[in-house]
């Protein structure tokens, strides 16, 4: 900071042609400006200004130094204006990560609408089922599903989310349907990326581990296996909503279904959220609330 202050003082002295006028422009004393220049010369081990009682004159080293420093005040002002603009209107690049299927079906279209309204915002959208480290990998925002882990990250609820245990009609016709959690081990269970299924029993969350002959980290692949009658599986509502509403799939053990969990907007803690981050979070929440994306078909199940 002192180094910058000394360089700023040096440029102002050259611009004004005197220590007193430079001091007045910088709102400091002339003696303070003189000390700054002296310290700068000592650090550079050279004379920058020749001083007399009537005038100042640049040395050869001072002339060369001035040519490199003279735009620094304008550069600083431009930098401050740029930061100030960022704090006033949404602009810059938004780096967002989300689970693949939810991102493709719901998030991406809404983000594209957001960009149409905010042309100064650029988007870097990364869809992956891996839980990304926002801070380490430089993301502004993540959309996370289900119960959140304790974290230094901040979060806002985007919408509700439920998971349904499902099977095709063909599977049920051939193997019947379970009536209790204990009967799950008698069925062909298809597993996704999780190691357990989540239910509610006597008002408490219950995790059930089942043996499986089929496993995949792909939600669409798991849905296809259910549709083909290979077994039963638990999937989020946004995968199975159309199949449940049409009757292609059957919801199993509804009495044990865990209450709605959330879909969350998660972002790093900051002194003040940037306008681009606040704007996109507000926009997504408003769109999900206004359109209530899952409500219509849930009422028909």
From TrEMBL:
One of its GO terms (molecular function) is DNA-binding transcription factor activity. It holds the Pfam family LysR_substrate. Transmembrane segments: none annotated. One of its GO terms (biological process) is DNA-templated transcription. The keyword Disulfide bond does not apply. InterPro entries: LysR-type_TF_proteobact-type, LysR_HTH_N, LysR_subst-bd, WH-like_DNA-bd_sf, WH_DNA-bd_sf. Keywords: DNA-binding, Transcription, Transcription regulation. It comes from the Bacteria. Residues 1-59 form the HTH lysR-type domain. PANTHER family: HTH-TYPE TRANSCRIPTIONAL REGULATOR, TRANSCRIPTIONAL REGULATOR-RELATED. Belongs to the LysR transcriptional regulatory family. This is LysR family transcriptional regulator.
């Amino acid at each position: 900071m002192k180094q910058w202050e000394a360089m700023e003082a040096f440029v102002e002295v050259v611009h004004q042609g005197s220590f007193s006028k430079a001091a007045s422009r910088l709102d400091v004393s002339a003696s303070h400006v003189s000390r700054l220049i002296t310290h700068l010369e000592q650090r550079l081990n050279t004379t920058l200004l020749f001083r007399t009682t009537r005038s100042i004159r640049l040395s050869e080293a001072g002339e060369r130094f001035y040519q490199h420093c003279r735009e620094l005040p304008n550069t600083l002002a431009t930098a401050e204006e740029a930061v100030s603009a960022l704090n006033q209107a949404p602009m810059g690049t938004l780096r967002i990560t989300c689970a693949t299927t939810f991102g493709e079906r719901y998030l991406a279209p809404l983000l594209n609408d957001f960009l149409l309204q905010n042309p100064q915002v650029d988007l870097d959208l990364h869809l992956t089922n891996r839980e990304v480290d926002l801070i380490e990998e430089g993301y502004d925002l993540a959309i996370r599903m289900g119960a959140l882990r304790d974290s230094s990250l901040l979060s806002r609820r985007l919408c509700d989310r439920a998971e349904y245990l499902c099977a095709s009609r063909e599977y049920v016709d051939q193997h019947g349907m379970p009536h209790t959690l204990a009967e799950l081990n008698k069925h062909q269970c298809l597993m996704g990326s999780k190691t357990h299924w989540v239910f509610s029993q006597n008002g408490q969350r219950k995790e059930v581990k089942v043996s499986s002959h089929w496993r995949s980290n792909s939600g669409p692949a798991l849905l296809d296996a259910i549709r083909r009658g290979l077994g039963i599986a638990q999937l989020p509502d946004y995968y199975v909503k159309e199949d449940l509403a049409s009757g292609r799939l059957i919801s199993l053990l509804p009495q044990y279904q865990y209450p709605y969990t959330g879909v969350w907007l998660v972002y790093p803690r900051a002194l003040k959220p940037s306008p681009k981050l606040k704007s996109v979070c507000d926009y997504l929440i408003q769109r999900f609330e206004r359109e209530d994306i899952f409500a219509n078909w849930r009422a028909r199940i």
